[in-house]
């Protein structure tokens, strides 16, 4: 299964989700390919230093270069997980024919609406809160995928 996580600039939430889920998937033995992109990302940007630090605390390396979301990403993905409802709306408006594989992370995992808080410009504590929220949801995602046999 090919999963892509999407946020705004692809420097905080989606790269953290990508790195966290790669780690979780490896631990759980899931056969997945994981990427991230941003709806308004500049190509080749660096991950936020606080995002790197928040993951380093969990012994997860974040070697990341930002990428704008492209048609190729959408074509290759089996599942597109946006960090917010607004991201989902932007993705669906830009890539209408892929709408059936676009969800917010919370929507896909919990069945409820809700956004992942944006830590951009915040303190390291805010980044750690976002990391922990992502980690809990991504652990649930891994369980769902295991139960679905994917």
From TrEMBL:
Q: Which family is it part of? A: Belongs to the low molecular weight phosphotyrosine protein phosphatase family.
Concerning SMART domains, the annotation shows: LMWPc
In terms of SUPFAM superfamilies, this protein maps to: Phosphotyrosine protein phosphatases I
Its taxonomic path starts at:
Bacteria, Bacillati, Bacillota, Bacilli, Bacillales
Q: Does the keyword Hydrolase apply?
A: yes
Swiss-Prot/TrEMBL keywords: Hydrolase, Protein phosphatase
All residue ranges annotated as the Phosphotyrosine protein phosphatase I domain in the record = 1-144
Q: Which organism is it from?
A: Bacillus mojavensis
Per the UniProt record, which residue ranges are transmembrane? none
Instruction: Tell me the name of the encoding gene.
Output: prpB
The record's annotation in PANTHER family points to: LOW MOLECULAR WEIGHT PROTEIN TYROSINE PHOSPHATASE, LOW MOLECULAR WEIGHT PROTEIN-TYROSINE-PHOSPHATASE ETP-RELATED
Q: What is this protein called?
A: Low molecular weight protein tyrosine phosphatase
